[in-house]
Write the structure tokens for this entry.
Amino acid sequence: MAKPTTPAQRRIIAAADPVTGRLTGTEAQLTALVRLQLAFRHPRPPHAYFLTPAGHRVRDEPVGTAPETAPVEPVAGVFAARTGTEEAPDEDGPSRAREVRGAWLGLVEMRRMTNPDGDKERPCEWERAHLPQAAAIALEAAGRVPARPSRAPARPGREGYRVTATEQPDAVAVREPTAEGVRACATALERAGWQVSEHGEARTGRRYVLASPRRA
């Protein structure tokens, strides 16, 4: 479901600090944005309000195309991170690039605001609670391409990554068709603050990466 955003709410989002995403408004206005999951209240004094990744996405929409409704699901539902396991064809282009950039910047800001030491290099609790989506955002933001949907027309060079859950509660598996692609994914996740290790499948010998959010 979605709830409508008002022109006043969209003005508040547009006026957010361009670097930190800090918001200015009345308590009632900011609380309403929290209910829409476009903002969050920092747990430490002075308990300021900041844009969530969904809020960053709304702010980054081109002028004149701001959505009339705001998604109320968590980031994974709002942004639709591409794990490479989707069944429906997807769309690429400038709009998707803006969404990816906004989602990644939102995660970095969430790290700064929610990690106890403000560390932007270490994944935050949201990422640990949404492992496949968080890994997919980091990979796509680094320029990696998700595997094409199984029912989509074949695209040359579109045999990209697939992120899947594992039996380990704090790790995901990342696969690509080539060893070079596997190593590139490992490098991208390491740079995004993940701990990675490369393994070979017992039956096929194909290489894959196990990745988990770094805690220290």
Observations:
- Helices lie at 7-14, 27-35, 53-60, 75-79, 94-114, 125-129, 131-141, 179-191.
